[in-house]
Design goal:
With about 240 residues, the protein is mostly beta strands. The protein has one domain. The protein contains one helix and 21 strands. The chain has a seven-stranded mixed sheet with strand order 1-4-7-10-13-16-20, with no helix packed on it. The protein has a six-stranded parallel sheet with strand order 2-5-8-11-14-17, with no helix packed on it. The protein is globular.
Length: about 240
């Protein structure tokens, strides 16, 4: 019996060919191929933007997901004014471009908060091709929680959705501030808000001009907001903290 063996040069060529094929497949997977993204731990926005978790592989302040973005219980995306930033630093802005659904489960959160001394909350923008769904206990916040009212403001929250928007009771979207609050702009086909959408500031004059004084507290819970066009809040003063038409 005779046996044939390939010379070592051919084995090397085969190995190189397999390796090249792997690289081609890997690159195709990274460069914008459809894929869902699950966040199940605390992640900074900088740890996602421009990495393999970002479909456009570009660190440009935009997290692109060609599929569903889901923030699970215990998962969070943050861009706060944490150290080593100086005390007067602001939270950074975040933008999410999602072709599928954007889901924030119970215990999931997005934070762009100013928590130390001066500075402002960061703007949060979401452009969603599917539905935007928050579960009870989910949170989106661009608040300014520290410092005097004249040293900064809450960040703006903008959520533009091609499909439906669901914010159930127990979910919160917050742009509050001890100074001027941030604005909240939500658009979608059908918007159902039973949770708290709050843009409350303590000053009477802000970036948008003078605001009317706050109304007296309401003894009755405000009716849920259900619209088929858009929901907008800016410098809201509702004393009961509930959304109003």
């Amino acid at each position: 019996m005779t046996s044939s063996r390939l010379p070592w040069q051919k084995w090397v060529a085969i190995a190189l060919g397999i390796g090249a094929g792997f690289l081609i497949v890997r690159d195709r997977m990274l460069l914008g191929a459809p894929g869902d993204l699950l966040i199940d731990s605390v992640r900074t926005f900088a740890s996602l933007d421009g990495t393999i978790d970002d479909a456009d592989l570009t660190a440009d302040g935009i997290l692109t997901v060609n599929g569903e973005l889901r923030i699970a219980n215990g998962g969070s995306i943050t861009c706060n004014d944490d150290p080593p930033l100086p005390n007067n630093a602001s939270a950074c802005p975040m933008q999410f471009n999602v072709t599928g659904d954007f889901v924030i489960e119970t215990g999931g959160s997005i934070y762009a908060e100013n928590r130390r001394a001066g500075g402002s909350g960061g703007d949060i923008t979401a452009n969603v091709g599917g539905d935007f769904v928050m579960e009870a206990g989910a949170l989106v916040s661009s608040r300014k929680t520290s410092g005097a009212g004249d040293t900064g403001h809450g960040g703006n929250i903008t959520i533009h959705v091609a499909g439906d928007v669901t914010v159930p009771e127990g979910a919160q979207i917050l742009a509050d501030s001890p100074g001027e609050a941030g604005s909240i702009d939500i658009t979608g086909k059908v918007i159902e808000i039973d949770g708290l959408v709050s843009s409350r500031g303590s000053t009477t004059t802000g970036r948008g001009g003078p605001r009317p004084p706050c109304p007296p507290p309401s003894p009755v819970r405000a009716a849920p907001l259900r619209r088929d066009a858009s929901a907008r809040e800016r410098g809201r003063c509702a004393a009961d903290g509930e959304p109003r038409d």
